[in-house]
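Re-run with default settings, no changes from the original entry. Doing this only to confirm the output is reproducible before filing.
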Amino acid sequence: MWTKFWALVLGCATAAGVCAVQAPARAAHVQPVGRTVDFTGAWQFALVNTTGDDAPQPGGHDPSWRDTRLPHDWSIELDPVQGPHTTAGTGFLPGGLGWYRKSFTLPSSMSGKKVSIEFDGVYMDSEVYLNGNLLGRHPYGYTGFAYDLDARTDGTPNVLAVKVRNQVPSSRWYSGSGIYRDVRLVVTEPVHVTRHGVKVTTPDLAATIRSGHAVMRVETTAVSESGDTGAEIVSTVRDPRGRIVGRGRARAALTAEPSTATADIRIGNPDLWSVDRPDLYTVDTEIRVRGRAVDTVSTRTGIRYFAFDADNGFSLNGVEMKLKGVNLHHDLGALGSAVSSDAIVRQLRIMKSMGVNAVRTSHNPPSPEFVRACEEMGVLLQVEAFDTWRTPKTKFDYGRFFDDHSSADLREMVHAAKNSPSVVMWSIGNEIPDSSAAAGPPIARRLIDDVRAVDTTRPIVMGSDRYRRVPAIGSPQDQILQMLDGLGLNYNDASSIDSLHARYPTKFFFEAESSSSTSTRGRYQDADQLNTGENHTPGRRNLSSYDNNLETWTYSGEYGLKKDRDRKWFAGQFLWTGFDYIGEPTPYDVYPVKSSFFGAVDTAGFSKDFYHLFRSQWSGEPMVHLLPMDWTGHKAGEPVSVWAYSNADTVELYLNGKSLGERRFDTKTTVHGSRYLETTEATGDDKTVTTGPYPGSYTSPNGSAGKLHLTWSVPFQPGRLVAVARRGGVEVARDEVRTAGEPHAIRLTPDRRMTRADGKGLTFVTAEVVDRAGVVVPDAHDLISYQVRGGSLAGLDNGRQESAENYQAGSRTAFNGKALAVVRSGRSTSVITVTARAPGLRTASTSVAAVGGRSGAARHTTADAAPVPSPALGADASYSGARDTIPAAMLDGSGSTHWSNYYLKRATALLPAVSRAHATDWVSLPVSEVEQAGSVRASFLSDASHALPASIAVSYWNGRAHVPVRDVKLDWSGGTTVTITFTAVRGDRIRLDLTSSAPGTAHGFLGISHASVGR
């Protein structure tokens, strides 16, 4: 009974939180028009459990069935929870066991046709049934697959059922669950092109283009399932403007066994595909039998050539360039893993605006929609196959299936993207434990052969963290590197990549994962430190945005940019990561921290300061960016470390119209002749450098060291802080931050004014909490609820990593002044109107036109604001240095626990360990047992790391602000225990602002073992 109850509750989850019992679906009538039929509509779904325990399909009238449309991810609909079947690594979102079903009829005209169903991706362990008969099982969640359908064509309904089982953890990051990519029927004659049966290459293009032409080789694989058949295969090439520019023919004797025919087609003066001009060609391939076309397949491709050179790095169409890449996991924030072309295009647009020209699909094959968007937008791709081989990394991951399925899955990956001009590398794995074991080289050999059996035109690489030292000759790492064309390094320092290049001079190298600096949008700490600790206070678990929170294996973004810049032979880097992603909330492993901190952009698509660092180095468009982005949350006179990222040589800073001085980058030149901007100073960012003019600092081969940002120390005063960037004395860009007043209104900004009325079109609406002057309030956390007319809410986000809010609820708190609503169009031509409300704020509305749909009344959807539970009133602190020294320890009555701001950040490969006391921190205590508070008693720690505070200031919360109390007296007669008395006040919280007696040292930290408030 318990299991059935939860199956009902979970299976009914909707964005509005409403459960409707569904009758068995009416059979959809399939009437093919063309070769493929969209098969994403009119499905039903039942979530049987969130444990992954095996179970049969629910009965036909079971109330857990509900209508759904594919692509679909059931995990993103659920609340994050802490339990035995969720992990921080997967975002505390459950997986489980789900069933899908679809009833459909086929017309008699399809009798004798070949009918198959293609899935682009099901996560994971899928089983597909037709009319109760098992068609097949496909374990891997990231590769497509197809089954022939022996379906009825007499008007009798067919029922397709898909069982999906995601036992968490099946991945190291959030995978999503369900049929999360597209599904289609493919209907052909018995004589037809096979699946992935067209391959297009341009052999010797680097040579032929000098003669003004390209040779497009079209290889077509086809079969005849109705006996031996003579056929003509005609391939017609159309240029980016749709004009026919070439045609080729080949004869083929087709049988039940696939055979391949080849045609070479000369293309005069071709338009080359590039990252700046992604021109695409179309190849229409027809199979003709006795003059009649019996099958037609269209293939999109591009004409381009590239090279990875061990001495000169990467070039495209003969032009040398760096790979300015990012890693992207496949989740789409509030949409989970459910594929959306609009969401993908938005991600890539944001990345392109940062200067990105390449993406590594970490760590799995991408969706066809992602590859298509990269082709259209001019983004290079490294397509990656696996995060694990035989040895698993999590209990239920792909390691269970690797030996039996990896060859087929790898070939499927290559087939699916082999015609894409974006793809320039195939990767056979990431950080593979087997690669340093005896079993590794034979596996690598097999995988490399699998790739080359399909495609010999692109190099084969892998991403690895096992080459930070030069491997011993004959070791597994050495053997595998000898087999590969090149190697993606994960977090290598400069000296190690130089050593690898010297040992393996014929191999090309690049950084498959670079930096991994972590940050939270709008949060800052210890600007003068190259590395700093984490705040473990519940509700404040965030990380500094000064590019200075680093784990033991990572390094700063600036270090990675300099290392890459200075080596012509180094092909480039893929930043870890472009976007934050759900799961892997390093360095925290505690509920409800559920998304990563690595991104240059948060999960909502709002840029962090890290984005602007890379933009300053990768984009030629003039820019300047100020940080901190918050010019509100400071005390008068408090010194604020202000940084500017810019690609201009000079930046001048103004506060309320008064110049605070000009700072300038020096113009330098690499040893291979490239010019760049950098300060000239010791940076202290590489302890491995022990010689030269800047020991302890990364030093370029040209002998110079410096930073990629400019700095000022500014005593805070409210107003307007403006940075003006100049080149040659002429202003080219400016940025400003302003002091915000009280929250007054919501401002809505859609990312487009027109969308498709196809039920799939998405509009991304940014909500900002602003003051009366329109300035975003940087600490606003108001709960915003949404109404949508003419469409529906697809998801809500705010980019906050520590959040238990449901991504598909009807309301979301703002985080640092911002939130995001993802709005899905309906199927009717209409105006989509989005309205946002929050208590005490002026309501906002915005509209988007939905075009191309059927006429009809606009749909109106609304959702009640899900109340954000008020946390139980307890102790709080500005900063807690460890997971077990949080403020609640002051109230638990145990003598063995305490609150402390002590932290120890472990050494990295480049930086020493750091433990430096903050100058100030605060703690606050609830006023719960007394109506008026007039005293505080606190017991402080005094030991090798902790010292008594130099001073204590007391204030109380009056409902809007902390107000100093009067007549404060401190009595330290208890030794390390202080009794503080003051004129009694009414309020729910008393705050102690504490000043360290030894700031910046390892013995000036503050700690309290017990504290209480009295009358």
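The chain has six domains: 28-188, 203-302, 341-619, 626-738, 743-851, 876-1014. The two ends are 52 Å apart (CA to CA).
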